[in-house]
């Protein structure tokens, strides 16, 4: 019991994932600033923002809606992100536990933050939040099928193995899955799914500052909004880590391999940052078509190639 609490609260759970995600958020903002010929924030800016929201800013409850559900939604998002992070990071750090890192369980845990945001938006009673929630739901229906096809392809490449320990072990013995044509296609599809899960441009329609002024988060402030920021920081870390586990051979924690493991995460975040800084926001119907047609075709093509040994 004590070990499980340590995994959830300290390492590799809430504290570790939150701090690492905050540094990655700074990296994302710094690269974005450089692309736009700005200086960018200091290293600890994400921590300043979080603690200012948590300790200084007032949490204002909306007049209409359900205050209890409104406040519980950010808590659920942090819980879902942390649980998913624990089940992803334990195999990556080769920490033995009772749970074997089943991909289907991880897949469902990763959907909890998005559904929590929808729940909080609808509980706020704000029409703009409802528009954002509607967009988030449509986006989920679009990219989750592609993400599921990517996971199916990974399971096939790993010899029908579902647990993350075995998938990482297979790659470390026989080479990373991305070293094949099917692996490259799966990486492309997974990268865009992660971009959408993080609601980064061009898939930031649910919050769309210029259109619906933060959309699903419009009514959030203070400690409740700090929880949402924390969940987003955790997701910014664990989703690239999940991609590293599925396709990049996982982590190695000895010698120079530690640096290579860090570069896998930083490199993936860099790709996500460059994608969001070189593309305009698209309409929700365009995003749905993009995933339901093109990304699904890429994922299916990868599965076909896997069947033929490529």
Characteristics:
310 residues, globular, mainly alpha
Give your account of this protein's structure.
The protein has 310 residues and is mainly α. The protein has 13 helices and no strands. The longest helix is centred in the middle third of the chain and has 31 residues. The N and C termini lie far apart (44 Å). It is globular, with a radius of gyration of 19 Å. It has one domain.
Write the layout of secondary structure elements.
Elements: H1 2-9, H2 14-35, H3 45-56, H4 67-92, H5 103-109, H6 112-124, H7 127-157, H8 164-174, H9 181-197, H10 209-212, H11 222-247, H12 257-277, H13 284-307
C-alpha Rg (nearest Å): 19 Å
How many helices in DSSP terms? 13
- Summarize the biggest pleated sheet: none
Give the class from helix and strand content and strand pairing.
mainly alpha
Total number of β-strand segments? Answer: 0
Helix content: over 70%
Q: Averaged pLDDT, please?
A: 92
Enumerate the spans where pLDDT stays under 50 for 5 or more consecutive residues: none
Q: Classify the beta-strand content into a percent band.
A: under 5%
Count of the domains: 1
Shape: globular
């Amino acid at each position: 019991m004590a070990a499980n609490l340590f995994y959830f609260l300290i390492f590799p759970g809430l504290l570790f994932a939150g701090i690492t995600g905050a540094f990655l958020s700074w990296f994302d903002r710094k690269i974005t600033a450089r692309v736009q010929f700005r200086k960018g924030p200091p290293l600890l800016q994400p921590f300043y923002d979080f603690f200012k929201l948590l300790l200084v800013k007032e949490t204002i409850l909306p007049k209409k809606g359900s205050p209890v559900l409104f406040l519980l939604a950010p808590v659920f998002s942090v819980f879902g992100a942390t649980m998913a992070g624990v089940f992803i990071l334990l195999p990556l750090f080769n920490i033995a536990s009772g749970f074997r890192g089943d991909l289907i369980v991880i897949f469902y845990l990763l959907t909890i933050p998005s559904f929590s945001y929808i729940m909080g938006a609808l509980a706020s009673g704000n029409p703009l939040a409802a528009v954002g929630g509607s967009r988030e739901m449509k986006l989920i229906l679009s990219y989750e099928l592609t993400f599921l096809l990517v996971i199916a392809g990974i399971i096939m490449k790993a010899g029908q193995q579902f647990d993350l320990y075995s998938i990482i072990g297979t790659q470390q013995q026989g080479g990373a899955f991305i070293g094949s044509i099917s692996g490259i296609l799966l990486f492309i599809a997974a990268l865009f799914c992660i971009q959408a899960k993080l609601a980064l441009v061009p898939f930031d329609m649910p919050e769309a500052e210029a259109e619906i002024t933060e959309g699903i988060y419009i009514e959030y402030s203070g400690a409740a909004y700090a929880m949402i920021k924390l969940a987003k920081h955790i997701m910014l870390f664990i989703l690239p880590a999940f991609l590293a586990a599925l396709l990049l051979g996982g982590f190695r924690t000895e010698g120079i391999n530690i640096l290579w493991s860090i570069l896998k995460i930083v490199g993936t975040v860099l790709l996500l940052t460059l994608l969001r800084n070189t593309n305009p926001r698209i309409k929700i119907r365009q995003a749905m078509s993009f995933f339901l047609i093109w990304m699904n075709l890429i994922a299916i093509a990868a599965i076909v190639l896997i069947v033929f040994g490529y």
